[in-house]
Amino acid sequence: MKEPITLGDVLSARKTIAGHVIHTPLRPSASLSEQIGSPVWLKCEHQQYTGSFKLRGAANAVLKLSPEQKEKGVVGVSTGNYGRALANAARNAGVRAVICMSELVPKNKVEGIRAQGAEICISGTSQDEAQKEVDRLVSEKGMTMLPPFDHADIIAGQGTLGLEILEQLPETDTLLVPLSGGGLLAGVALAAKSINPAIRVVGISMERGCAMITSLQEGKPTAVKELPTLADSLGGGIGQNNQYTFDMCADLTDDFVLVNETQIADGIRAAYHDDQQVIEGAAAVGIAALRAGLIDNPGTTVVLSTGCNIDMDLHKRIVGGEDVDLMAE
């Protein structure tokens, strides 16, 4: 039986990754605060090393490997940001890394991973298909698989974001957290609710293929078709043998919200024009939900802005007002 993840694990992770990650700023958003009539703050994790929150979990997991595991190397599956983070953490620790991903991962994210020194493997058209190559490398080469979300050290590392937020703004009423496989949501909710049980945690994802929300609705891990979306970092399944995040998201999340492609684009534009921030679609879902009026009575709100790894040509089109639909391209 697996050991539950605790606040103590998150506190330990913070010590482990100290010096390997940035303590990212929490900045007020005047435009969002005015729109909803309550204070809104942006947790600018898109300013993290490698351009996303994923480095917290990856660094924690790599640094906790045994010498034997480090010698044989690590392998993981990624929709982009986790691959970049794992590659960075492995390179800094002197460990070989192989990152497997599907054909749907944007080229800019593939090249970003390659630039961090990892070996690249493109396999299939879904995260689950890429996982098969990961399993082969584990079986044949003895490499250690570090999954992007469903791993105790990964979740504990992501939970350090929750600690930072409540240290920076103890009066937070609501956290808006992007939701994919649930590692971020599980870790942040665990840390935040351990400190303040009354805090409200809302998981937000895209309408086009949110595996976690579909799985929770079905009562079990459920495969969904991956579709092109502006929030590409939120794509992928949660794993049929999910060990942690399915249960933790069910137990620790107060509400779930879905946003459409038009709303995601609006969030990207608002971050740029109103708050002077360049963020990717997955990072914009919280802003999108607020601007669309999908969060009732939020109170003092922190929006987790989780990544900036967007193709800049695509970003230019969106902030320029183009109605971008990746399904039609």
Description:
With 329 residues, the chain is of the alpha/beta class. It has two domains: 7-52 and 151-328, 3-Layer(aba) Sandwich (Rossmann fold), CATH 3.40.50; 55-145, Rossmann fold. It has 14 helices and ten strands. It has helices at 7-17, 30-36, 54-63, 67-72, 81-93, 107-115, 127-141, 152-168, 183-195, 211-218, 245-252, 261-275, 285-291, 312-319, and strands at residues 26-28, 40-44, 74-77, 97-101, 119-122, 144-145, 174-178, 200-206, 255-259, 301-305. The strands form two sheets. The protein has a six-stranded mixed β-sheet with strand order 1-2-10-7-8-9. It has a four-stranded parallel β-sheet with strand order 5-4-3-6, with helices on both faces. Helix 12 (261-275) crosses helix 13. The radius of gyration is 18 Å and the shape is globular. Pfam families: PALP. Residues 19-307 form the Tryptophan synthase beta chain-like PALP domain. Its EC number is 4.3.1.19. Belongs to the serine/threonine dehydratase family. This is Threonine dehydratase.
Helix content: 40-55%
Largest sheet descriptor: 6 strands, mixed
Shape verdict: globular
DSSP helical segment count: 14
Strands ordered across the widest β-sheet: 1-2-10-7-8-9
- List the secondary-structure elements in sequence, H or E: HEHEHHEHEHEHEHEHEHHEHHEH
* Global Rg: 18 Å
Query: What's the pLDDT, averaged over the residues?
Result: 95
Measured between the Cα atoms of the first and last residue, the distance is: 46 Å
Q: How many domains? A: 2
Poorly predicted ranges (pLDDT <50, ≥5 residues)?
none
Which class of the largest domain in CATH terms? Alpha Beta
Q: What is the CATH topology classification name of the largest domain?
A: Rossmann fold
